[in-house]
Amino acid sequence: MRGVLFAPSGATMVWIRNISSDGAHVTADDPLPADCDVILKRGPIFAAARVKSSDRSGTGLDFYRSLTDEELNSAHLPLPHRED
């Protein structure tokens, strides 16, 4: 799934490889900053997170609040008029 990560360095399109109520693992074309606060956007979800790790294999995020089941389900739905 695609999403957008808002970091101090700017907005970056990311691929969400795994998402749970407490965090996510994302990948991007360029390495993302480590040890900073970010916001992950996917559809109706805006989740504030702390980058716990970032390397060539991807970026691990810890959400500041747990996502509800409803929010997680909406993250897995395709966005309107898009195939992601």
Question: Would you mind describing this structure in some detail?
Answer:
The chain is mostly beta strands and 84 residues long. It has a single domain, classed as Thrombin, subunit H. Helix content is 10%, strand content 52%. It is built from 1 helix and 6 strands. It has a 6-stranded antiparallel barrel with strand order 1-2-3-6-5-4. The longest helix has 8 residues, at 69-76. The protein is globular, with a radius of gyration of 12 Å.
What overall geometry do the principal axes of the alpha carbons give? Answer: globular
Strand content: over 45%
Spell the H/E element sequence. EEEEEEH
> How big is the Rg?
12 Å
| Range of helix content | under 10%
CATH architecture: Beta Barrel
Q: What is the number of independent domains? A: 1
Tally of strands: 6
CATH class bucket: Mainly Beta
For the biggest β-sheet, the strand order reads 1-2-3-6-5-4
CATH T-level topology: Thrombin, subunit H
Biggest β-sheet strands, sense, barrel:
6 strands, antiparallel, barrel
Low-confidence stretches: none
Number of helices: 1
Mean pLDDT: 89
Which characteristics define this entry?
single chain, 84 residues, six-stranded antiparallel beta barrel, 1 helix
Write the layout of secondary structure elements.
Blueprint: E1 2-7, E2 10-19, E3 23-27, E4 37-42, E5 45-55, E6 58-63, H1 69-76
In short:
This protein has one helix at 69-76, and strands at residues 2-7, 10-19, 23-27, 37-42, 45-55, 58-63. It is built from one helix and six strands.
